[in-house]
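Structure first, sequence second, as always.
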């Protein structure tokens, strides 16, 4: 393969280019065959044969002949290595080693063969200063991996050498000299020798290098020729501040990606991820592609990914996602896992222990405030006060805890801190023709509840193996397995979060335990005692899942056509889940003070019952691609491929339920009453077929034009509408490479790019809606006997077809001051048409019809993105980098099936997707308002009720005054700020996340307080400055039946926030210390997640990201103590 001479900056890219697609085998038999073939074909420079025909030819041209006939790649710095000398060489079937000896015999070029790379350097041994001193050392990257072929040069001379396969070097230099160490893709360092005889160097990546290779759909591209809007992160950024939910740790780091954690409960803390906001009326989840294979988020495949296994994450946000066609309309997230490297076996171990607690505890009323609120509510309703002032004082001072307790149910149930352990171990290494990576991970999240057997554990293992059979065939074989084991308390209605809701409802005037005993009381909300429920005594919900991913691919280079190759892969995924929900009889106690005795009572559950469900899903995906890559006349590059893909999914589900179990210790269905049993089963088989391709033309990295397409067929649509064509076009112009820009030395990069693409979405709640479905039914009675039969279950839609998204993007990329200062700007717009949704508004519900999805919805989403970054020279003792990103994405509904005759201001059209319909609160009715007939109000309104705006001006307050709101819980504006500091062995990282133009709605249960004598607890905030006859200017509505509070904007709180999302401080232990115990790298660190937040919900003790109005557990704050070592 012909290569032009390259500078330092480009050599790494070309060195890796032949190894971009590392593929796998799927069966162990094939793996054994592969190993055998590797050993049988362990070609090297002594055995690999070439045919050279050179007559008075430049050395560089002979090198090109060697590269075109072998898998070797020559790496050299054209500024130091002169290959212009002409030689003549004609030989057939000669080894590469012999050619090299002859070629460089009478030159000043020396070479070293390292794997498939042949390193060239100028021979300077005869010029070494014999009176100098000898210095040696090792050059590694930030992970402790040896860098092979790094240049080590004495500054101001031609005296230099290269590092060997272990990263070691030795050089004789003058005592006062300075060494320059450089390698492609890393920042050059200059270090003064002084009195040292040993000098180890840690190289830092040049993160701004334009020749950086980034992952795109079905391949990789140089960053400087990418024409789409993409965002990427590398492994060192992904593994910072480790959390149980990897996605949460990425918040604020990926431009255009909205990441919110809605729940903090272990195992339920997956994040909501949106790329450039919301676009669809139905599904807005992105597509996940792991190592080139589309994979379902089922089982938390992304959120629960072990960050130590990830090499990079790339997000496709515009037409670049069109290559994935039918499921890419919401954007694509590409995950590339780490692979083995040539070298001796290296073991890396990471471990951290975390102290976790909810970011906040909900601020509920204490017993004294609650009692006063209840009395005020009773007074307003004309009911006698429940407590006297003396009794309220006893609540306040705690003088009689038996009769007047003050129970903070959150403190009773919830721990101050819980623990979490996370570990990963990796083994990497390999030889020229075989590399491997094997890793295993473990996660154990402790229960946030004080007395709970709750657990959430995860185990994962990964194996990535790359093998080269010969110069033309490469194989890879990847395996991944994950097991999760989660147990939660069960509350008779719902697990976990439902149990947590009882905590917020239970009154502070109730006991959790009777004082001085371990007897739980019967005083919780609705006969539920949250403390007992949290222990699991009321039952448990247990879920065990198994995930297996296997992938095998083969890469065949066609030797007789330069740049042509064929790649094929097959993947098999399995997901299994066993779900068990057991509701047991639990006991509470009542207390008779007159006899000082306790009576044991059954709790809410009257009879034990068990529900079991088993799910299995299998996914098989196979594809083949024909690739072509070639450069003509050194400036015209064509990178193209076409492919075919077929996949199939099979799912089965089986469930059963029985009640009246004789004991709570036997959780098996056959132990229950057979007369109460119910069961259900289902199965499905679906498939997709796809044709796809891409062509990129690059002229001298200056002008780029790319076309891609996908032709998808889906099981969800009838034959006439089954296939959809999804094209994408993008182009780029690197203006800074023009001749008229070359004199502007401070401007290093200026690129303008644009894209247009069409993508699809075949997401349906139920498949095969174009068919008439039938269901088994009982109910037909004839002559007193009931007969089973079938009935039509749906209304079919024979015209159902693809949801379509058309996206536009215009982007600008700039780099200044040697790319230390960078800026990017994107404008984007997406029009979504033919959205699949039902006509549930215009067709009355009383028809009883099970309506199908139809292609009737339409939305629009547009906005801008900006990224700004600056990095100091990282080779200095003190260095830093600062980057920020900001995204504004605003969506609106163009058409949706809505209730006929709705007022224009009530329609969803023109408003954000999912916007609520609310009465607009404009204050509180005063006595004067009630007395004034010109003030619009509803019948029965009294002073202290929320004042509603008369929107249509008819003098009345009714349903016509409801207004569709302008914001939702998905923010229009998101931003992130990331700061990295480094001083000698120390490093500090800070990550901030923020959002704006988002709203949060409080639970109506907490904002419609004191609706009955002895009702649920209320927020402490509500008890402060409420409107009463004695406080007519109160800022909060009256207590009692403040009609319609939950339906007004009074409960609408700004969800804007600014958070210190992540912080980490680390220390790299010096190598002269750790080498004594056999370690090559060691780093200790302290990190934190969700450390503080500036927002509008702190007064409630609620995190602005949490879901369900604050009833779910707030996201967790983590303090990590961790260590990373390699040996």
């Amino acid at each position: 393969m012909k290569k032009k001479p390259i500078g330092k900056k480009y050599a790494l890219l070309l060195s890796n280019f032949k190894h971009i697609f590392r593929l796998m085998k799927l069966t162990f038999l094939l793996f054994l065959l592969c190993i055998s073939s590797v050993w049988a074909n362990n070609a090297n420079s002594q055995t690999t044969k070439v045919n050279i025909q050179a007559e008075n030819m430049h050395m560089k041209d002979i090198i090109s002949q060697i590269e075109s006939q072998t898998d070797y790649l020559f790496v050299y710095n054209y500024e130091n290595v002169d290959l212009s000398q002409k030689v003549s060489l004609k030989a057939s079937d000669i080894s590469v080693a012999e050619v090299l000896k002859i070629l460089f015999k009478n030159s000043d070029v020396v070479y070293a063969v390292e794997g498939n790379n042949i390193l060239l350097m100028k021979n300077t041994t005869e010029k070494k200063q014999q009176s100098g001193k000898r210095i040696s050392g090792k050059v590694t990257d930030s992970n402790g991996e040896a860098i092979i072929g790094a240049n080590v040069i004495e500054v101001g001379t031609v005296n230099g050498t290269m590092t060997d396969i272990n990263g070691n070097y030795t050089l004789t230099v003058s005592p006062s000299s300075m060494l320059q160490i450089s390698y492609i893709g890393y920042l050059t360092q200059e270090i003064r020798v002084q009195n040292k005889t040993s000098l180890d160097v840690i190289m830092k990546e040049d993160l701004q290098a334009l020749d950086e290779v980034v992952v795109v759909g079905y391949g990789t591209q140089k960053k400087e020729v990418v024409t789409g809007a993409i965002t990427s992160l590398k492994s060192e950024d992904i593994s910072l501040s480790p959390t149980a939910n990897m996605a949460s740790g990425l918040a604020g780091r990926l431009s255009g990606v909205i990441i919110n954690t809605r729940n903090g409960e272990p195992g339920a803390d997956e994040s909501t991820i949106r790329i450039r906001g919301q676009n669809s009326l139905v599904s807005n989840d992105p597509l996940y592609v792991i190592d080139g294979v589309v994979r379902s988020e089922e089982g938390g495949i992304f959120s629960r990914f072990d960050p130590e296994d990830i090499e990079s994450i790339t997000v496709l946000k515009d037409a670049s996602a069109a290559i994935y066609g039918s499921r890419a309309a919401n954007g694509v997230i590409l995950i590339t896992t780490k692979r083995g490297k040539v070298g001796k076996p290296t073991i890396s171990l990471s471990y951290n222990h975390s102290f976790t607690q909810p970011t906040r505890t909900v601020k509920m009323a204490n017993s004294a405030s609650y009692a006063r609120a209840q009395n005020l509510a009773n007074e307003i309703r004309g009911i006698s006060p429940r407590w006297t002032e003396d009794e309220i004082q006893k609540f306040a001072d705690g003088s009689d805890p038996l009769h007047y307790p003050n129970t903070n149910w959150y403190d009773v149930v919830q721990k101050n801190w819980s623990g979490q352990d996370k570990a990963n171990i990796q083994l990497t290494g390999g030889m020229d023709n075989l590399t491997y990576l094997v890793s295993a991970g473990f996660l154990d999240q402790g229960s946030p509840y004080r007395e709970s057997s709750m657990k959430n554990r995860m185990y994962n293992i990964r194996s990535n193996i790359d093998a080269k059979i010969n110069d033309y065939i490469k194989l890879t074989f990847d395996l991944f397995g994950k097991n999760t084991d989660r147990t939660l308390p069960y509350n008779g209605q719902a697990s976990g979060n439902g149990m947590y809701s009882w905590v917020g409802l239970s009154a502070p005037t109730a006991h959790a335990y009777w004082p001085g005993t371990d007897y739980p009381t019967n005083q919780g909300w609705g006969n539920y005692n949250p403390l007992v429920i949290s222990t699991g005594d009321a039952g448990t919900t247990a879920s065990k899942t198994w995930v297996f991913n296997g992938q095998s691919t083969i890469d065949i280079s066609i030797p007789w056509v330069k740049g042509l190759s064929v790649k094929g892969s097959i993947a098999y995924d399995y997901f299994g889940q066993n779900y068990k929900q057991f509701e047991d009889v639990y006991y509470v106690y009542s207390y008779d003070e007159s006899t000082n005795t306790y009576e044991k009572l059954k709790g809410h559950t009257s009879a034990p019952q068990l529900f079991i469900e088993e799910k299995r899903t299998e996914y098989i995906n196979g594809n083949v691609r024909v690739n072509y890559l070639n450069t003509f006349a050194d400036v015209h590059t064509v990178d193209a491929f076409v492919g075919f893909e077929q996949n199939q999914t099979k799912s089965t589900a089986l469930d059963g339920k029985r009640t009246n179990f004789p004991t709570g210790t036997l959780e098996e269905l056959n132990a229950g009453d057979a007369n109460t049993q119910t069961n259900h089963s289902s199965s499905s088989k679906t498939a997709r077929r796809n044709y796809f391709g891409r062509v990129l033309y690059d002229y001298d990295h200056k002008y780029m034009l790319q076309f891609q397409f996908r032709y998808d067929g889906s099981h969800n649509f009838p034959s006439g509408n089954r296939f959809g064509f999804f094209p994408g076009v993008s182009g780029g112009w690197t203006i800074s490479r023009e001749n008229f820009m070359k004199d502007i030395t401070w401007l290093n990069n200026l690129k303008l790019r644009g894209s247009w693409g069409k993508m699809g979405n075949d997401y349906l709640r139920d498949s095969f809606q174009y068919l008439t479905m039938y269901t088994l039914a009982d109910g037909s009675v004839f002559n007193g006997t009931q007969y089973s039969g079938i009935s039509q279950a749906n209304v079919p839609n024979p015209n159902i077809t693809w949801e379509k998204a058309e996206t536009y993007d215009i982007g600008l990329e700039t780099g200044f001051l040697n790319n230390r200062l960078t800026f990017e700007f994107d404008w984007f717009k997406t029009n979504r048409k033919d959205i699949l949704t039902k006509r549930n508004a215009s067709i009355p519900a009383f028809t009883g019809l099970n309506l199908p999805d139809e292609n009737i919805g339409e939305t629009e989403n547009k906005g801008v993105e900006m990224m700004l970054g600056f990095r100091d020279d990282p080779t200095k003792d003190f260095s830093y980098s600062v980057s920020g990103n900001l995204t504004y994405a605003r969506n609106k509904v163009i058409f949706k099936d809505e209730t006929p005759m709705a007022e224009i201001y009530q329609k969803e059209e023109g408003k954000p997707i999912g916007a609520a319909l609310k009465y607009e609160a404009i204050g509180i009715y005063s006595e004067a308002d009630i007395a004034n007939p010109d003030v619009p109000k509803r019948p029965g309104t009294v002073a202290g009720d929320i004042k509603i705006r008369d929107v249509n001006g008819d003098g009345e307050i009714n349903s016509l005054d409801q207004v569709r709101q302008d914001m939702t819980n998905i923010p229009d504006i998101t931003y992130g700020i990331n700061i990295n500091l480094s001083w000698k062995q120390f490093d500090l990282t800070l990550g901030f996340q923020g959002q704006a133009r988002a709203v949060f709605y409080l639970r109506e249960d907490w904002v419609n307080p004191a609706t009955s004598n002895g009702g649920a607890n209320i927020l402490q905030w509500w008890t402060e400055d409420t409107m009463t006859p004695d406080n007519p200017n109160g800022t909060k509505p009256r207590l009692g039946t403040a009609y319609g509070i939950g339906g007004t904007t009074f409960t609408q709180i700004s969800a804007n926030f600014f958070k210190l999302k992540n912080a980490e401080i680390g220390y790299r232990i010096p190598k002269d210390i750790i080498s004594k115990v056999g370690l090559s790298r060691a780093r200790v660190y302290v990190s934190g997640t969700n450390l503080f937040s500036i927002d509008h919900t702190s007064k409630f003790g609620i995190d602005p990201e949490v879901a369900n109005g604050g009833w779910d557990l707030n996201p967790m704050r983590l303090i990590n103590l961790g260590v990373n070592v390699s040996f």
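Margin note: The chain is about 10% helix and 45% strand.
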